[in-house]
Specification:
The complex is a heterodimer.
Chain A: E1 8-9, E2 11-19, H1 24-37, E3 42-47, E4 56-64, E5 75-80, H2 86-92, E6 93-102, E7 117-121, H3 123-130, H4 134-153, H5 157-167, H6 172-192, E8 199-200, E9 210-214, H7 215-226, E10 230-233, H8 240-253, E11 265-268, H9 272-284, E12 289-293, H10 295-311, E13 315-321, H11 338-342, E14 353-354, H12 359-376, E15 379-385, H13 386-390, E16 392-396, H14 414-419, E17 449-451, H15 465-485, E18 490-492, E19 498-503, H16 507-519, E20 524-529, E21 531-532, H17 536-544, E22 547-552, H18 558-567, E23 574-578, H19 587-599
Parallel strand pairs in A: 1-8, 2-5, 5-6, 6-7, 10-11, 10-12, 12-13, 13-15, 14-15, 19-20, 19-22, 22-23
Antiparallel strand pairs in A: 2-4, 3-4, 9-16, 14-21, 18-20
Helix pairs in contact in A: 1-4, 1-5, 3-4, 4-6, 5-6, 7-8, 7-12, 9-10, 16-19
Chain B: H1 38-52, E1 60-64, H2 68-71, E2 81-84, H3 90-100, E3 105-111, H4 112-118, H5 120-128, E4 133-139, E5 142-143, E6 149-150, H6 173-179, E7 184-189, H7 193-205, E8 209-215, H8 231-237, E9 238-247, E10 262-266, E11 272-277, H9 287-299, E12 303-310, H10 317-321, H11 333-336, H12 340-346
Classes of the chains: A alpha/beta, B alpha/beta.
Chain lengths: ~600, ~350
């Protein structure tokens, strides 16, 4: 894509540079949705600062007839609305590309590059002449550039009109104002530039059966469909919108509109320590309960996570990962909590991780997580990240099978307890490491005392060496059982010598990179892990390949560390390929790194 | 062996309650606390309270954190589920458990170390939510399990067993509860079962968060001459402000004192607490007056006990949330699942 931007239909990147807090998000979303509605696959990524307003924010729209979901790594059209970042935005545009800016204040000296076309649209002036009130003028400037882009890129104005009517269905007055702003930009561009540009869209039919959704919304829907009734949380970016969405869906689906009665209970806890405590309390008492959080929240929850592991209480934790360590960069993305979640808390602990690659898997894995947590009676993590959680992704429509029955695991009913001669909480009756449990208040025979301190298979406190070992060794048997229950990896390729192992939101960039590399004569096989503990096929994949690039978004190669720790492979085979800037990984990076490794002769 | 099962000895003519259960049915394992520990007296009062209220033991969930006090749920109601959580975080576990099944009795047993240091936030927020549970603080002013350090409730000037003097202000659970909006705030003394028993019963029946701070001297680390939480000191400066009598729903009030000296308080299930006022002007419905009464007597060196504040009609966590009457954990999945058609309809807005 570095070859420039000549005639490019349905295959380019627009990057919009804005000032945080100026209302650009809805305008940018309108732009992306309009392209999606025209049947053209599209991807949107939001790079925003961790503040309320004033700092630079970017929105990247990739128009991609091939349906790629990752960043390409290039910019073909910049919309530069933030004077603070002009130099950076100007520099990013590929040769032959375009830059649109607000020419109310001419910038002929600053915005100069001979190899691109700079388009000035007097957005502020147009809006100041048309709209009253400072706020409206600022907001409409953004809508106005969408109008200009509509003319320049050949967007369908009817589609935009329809979107505005749907968006503001309850505020009809806003539709007219927005349409005026669209028309202002559209007319100006048509009068002053050759429209459309060589860079443009053409209607396609490749978005039917698809939706645009973010991972947090999809995960929240998964919680609803899994039958979760208790949610406890403490707000933290970038996971907050998961509980916001769960709350909204529950209000819609789980509330009696007449009586107001709710079949759910959401508690905003005082902190993350309390949030996970509530989830464990609810899990102990038989409800499907979860908490959404991010890295710093996981740090705080550690003690309770260990308690949940040793006392064997079902719990679901969504960790929407952000950049660490410490507070890190709260609004940037990374996959930096793999090891911390896999072995969270002190002592010997291991926790199942589910690793979705996109919002569709967030939905599916949310349901899997509750089934696994109850089947295995242990905390289960869904490790998403900011890129998946907060960005809009085009995914096939979510499907639901109405014959689904939640796996509540080995819970003894009142009748079963009545029949039982004796119930012991931690006795491995079936030999799979998973014991039967009873719920409080169900039957007198089910009573036991749950504790995080040493206990034997009868749930009695013990410091006896053999009794302690029997319990922790059984937990390892349960871990072996878990391997058969977690989602299998996705494997593609045809027995090539080189392979890639990757995880989560790297998937789109990896798939695109393998296509590009194959075109360049470098075929690679690809395995995407979808869960920890690792399925047996991960070991096989490593055995069958000579050199494997382990691609992930963190500094220390945490996926690679887990693989080494759990599978003890030949270390020299596993080449770390790490992207950890806080921006989502792009295919260019992967292609460049693999090509340079091959050029160095090691992989030849 | 660290677990001591109590021998189940039954004898003829044992008293039974309305459920046909004996007092023994409300007991638990053998206590491993020090002989003479105040906590064991509280355990004994709890056994009697549950017995006398005719509560089925298995319908109770016992919760605790970490510390000597937190061991005690193992010593009563062996037919109830118990959970010994992490230090100071029992209120969160209780909140989640209560969210899942609102129809059980919840009793949390905590200590001054557990509730007033690491657990202070959770203690406060459970009251803020008016979580429906009985919450006991077995308060001895000292850390027993780690052998004698001051806790946050240790009084200024009190002396540790090894001679150290405490110079920091104590946190008083009763004043904290009043400040945090607690709806049932009481203080008892493990050495006064007559006063404690009706308060426990009323606390169990209170529709909301019932906090009882029970002074419970530590016989090993805090029962010496210079301690302000010793048996001797507590007895000497003990000031019962309000005596509570618990009256079950169907029983008439038979007060052994003159009208005007007693305030009947109706609880949600029709039972009553009869507050017999030792102080003639004491109003247990006046939060500010309760606070000032406490302050006044504290300055006089007195330890005020009794049911000091009660607010019967503040909505609980579930009432505020408008949670369904059926326990959430018992709802059938068919009620919770919106179905494939609803999902398809919902997704129209994602296009």
């Amino acid at each position: 894509m570095s070859e420039g931007t000549k005639s490019r239909v349905n295959d380019f990147v627009i990057k919009l540079a804005n000032v945080n807090g100026t209302g650009s998000a809805s305008a940018n979303s309108l732009l992306m949705k309009a392209i999606f509605r025209m049947g053209i696959p599209v991807m949107g990524k939001n790079y925003f600062p961790s503040n309320i307003q004033g700092l630079p924010t970017w929105y990247e729209v990739r128009v991609t007839s091939d349906g790629h979901t990752a960043r390409s790594g290039s910019v073909d059209f910049a919309v530069a609305m933030n004077a603070q970042t002009y130099p950076q935005d100007l520099a990013e545009v590929s040769p032959g590309g375009y830059l649109l800016y607000d020419s109310t204040w001419p910038r002929s000296r600053v915005l100069q590059r001979d190899d691109i076309t700079v388009l000035g649209v007097p957005l502020a002036q147009l809006c100041n002449e048309t709209f009253d009130g400072a706020r409206a003028r600022i907001l409409m400037k953004n809508v106005c550039y969408v109008g200009a882009l509509a003319a320049l890129l050949d967007l369908d104005l009817d589609v935009i009109r329809q979107l505005l009517e749907e968006t503001f269905a309850s505020k009809k007055a806003l539709v007219a104002g927005n349409l005026t702003a669209i028309q202002l930009g559209y007319d100006y561009a048509r009068e002053n530039f050759d429209c459309p540009l060589p860079l443009r869209v053409e209607p396609l039919d490749r978005t039917a059966g698809h939706i645009m959704i973010d991972g947090n919304t999809a995960a929240a829907l998964g919680c609803v469909y899994a039958g979760a009734t208790v949610g406890a949380w403490y707000p933290i970016t970038p996971s907050t919108s998961l509980m916001d969405a769960f709350k909204a869906f529950c209000y819609r689906f789980r509330r009696d509109p007449e009586s107001g009665e709710k079949n759910y209970c959401i508690v905003q806890a005082e902190d993350e320590l309390a949030a996970i405590g509530m989830v464990l309390g609810a899990g102990w008492n038989g409800a499907r309960a979860f908490t959404p959080t991010s890295g710093p929240g996981i740090s705080l929850m550690n003690e309770f996570i260990g308690f949940g592991y040793f006392a064997e209480i079902p719990a679901v934790l969504f960790n929407v990962q952000r950049v660490g360590p410490s507070t890190g960069m709260p609004t940037r993305t990374q996959q930096c909590d793999l090891t911390t979640c896999a072995y969270a808390s002190h002592g010997d602990t291991r926790h199942p991780l589910l690793l979705p690659a996109d919002p569709r898997e967030c939905f599916e894995f949310a349901v899997n997580a509750f089934d696994l947590a109850e089947r295995l009676q242990t905390p289960v993590f869904v490790l998403s990240d900011l890129d998946i959680g907060m960005n809009d992704w085009m995914v096939p429509e979510l499907q639901w099978d109405d014959s689904y029955v939640p796996d509540r695991g080995k819970v003894l009913s009142s009748a079963e307890l009545e029949q039982a001669e004796q119930f012991y909480r931690y006795t491995d009756v079936d030999g799979d490491g998973i014991c039967y449990r009873s719920l409080p208040g169900v039957h007198p025979k089910g009573a036991y005392f749950l504790r995080g301190s040493g206990h034997n298979e009868r749930a009695e406190y013990t410091e006896d060496a053999e009794e302690y070992k029997a319990v922790v060794d059984r937990l390892l048997r349960k871990w072996e059982t878990a391997k058969e229950l977690v989602p299998e990896p996705v494997v593609s390729g045809a027995g090539n010598r080189l392979g890639i192992i990757s995880v989560g939101s790297c998937d789109g960039a990896v798939r695109e990179a393998t296509e590009l590399l194959a075109q360049k004569g470098v075929p690679l096989d690809y395995l995407r892990v979808r869960a920890f503990p690792f399925h047996e096929s991960v070991r096989q994949f490593i055995d069958e390949h000579e050199r494997i690039y382990v691609i992930e978004q963190n500094r220390d190669g945490q996926l690679r560390t887990l693989i080494i720790n759990e599978l003890e492979p030949d270390l020299a085979k596993l080449v770390p390929l790490l992207h950890y800037s806080g921006l989502p990984i792009d295919c260019r990076f992967i292609v460049r790194e693999i090509e340079s490794d091959i050029a160095a002769g090691v992989a030849a | 062996m660290s677990f001591i099962r109590k021998p189940d000895i039954r004898y003829k003519g044992q008293r039974t309650n309305a459920l046909g259960l004996t007092l023994r049915d409300y007991e638990g394992g053998m206590s491993t606390l020090c002989a003479g520990c105040g906590h064991d007296s509280i355990t004994s009062a709890l056994v009697q309270a549950f017995f006398e209220l005719d509560i089925e033991p298995y319908r109770v969930a016992k919760l605790s954190g970490i510390g000597c006090s937190s061991k005690t749920p193992a010593y009563f109601l062996s037919q109830a589920h118990g959970i010994n959580a992490v230090h100071g975080r029992m209120p969160a576990v209780a909140t989640g458990a209560n969210a899942a099944a609102r129809d059980l009795y919840y009793i949390g047993v905590s200590g001054d170390g557990d509730s007033l240091s690491i657990g202070l936030g959770q203690f406060a927020h459970a009251m803020r939510r008016n979580l429906h549970m009985l919450y006991l603080i077995e308060n001895n002013g000292v850390y027993g399990l780690t052998k004698g350090q001051f806790s946050a409730s240790a009084d200024i000037g009190s002396k540790a067993k090894k001679g150290e003097i405490n110079e920091q202000r104590p946190i008083d659970p009763v004043k904290t509860a009043l400040a945090m909006g607690g709806t049932f705030v009481a203080r008892g003394f493990s050495g006064d079962k007559d006063q404690l028993l009706p308060m426990l019963k009323a606390g169990l029946k209170h529709d909301g968060f019932a906090m009882i701070d029970v002074l419970s001297p530590c016989v090993t680390f805090n029962d010496h001459e210079d301690s302000t939480k010793s048996y001797a000191h507590t007895r000497q400066f003990y000031h019962p402000a309000v005596h509570a009598d618990f009256i079950p729903p169907a029983e008439p009030i038979r007060a052994g004192y003159d009208e005007g000296e007693a305030v009947p308080v109706q609880l949600h299930d029709g039972s009553q607490v009869l507050l017999r006022k030792v102080a003639p002007d004491y109003d247990p419905h006046d939060r500010a007056a309760a606070m000032s009464y406490l302050e006044r007597h504290e300055q006089a060196g007195e330890i005020v006990t009794g049911l000091l504040y009660i607010e019967e009609h503040r909505p609980t966590m579930h009432a505020i949330n408008q949670t369904a009457a059926t326990a959430l954990r018992d709802l059938d999945y068919s009620v919770l699942n919106p179905g494939a058609a609803a999902l398809a309809e919902l997704q129209k807005r994602f296009r």
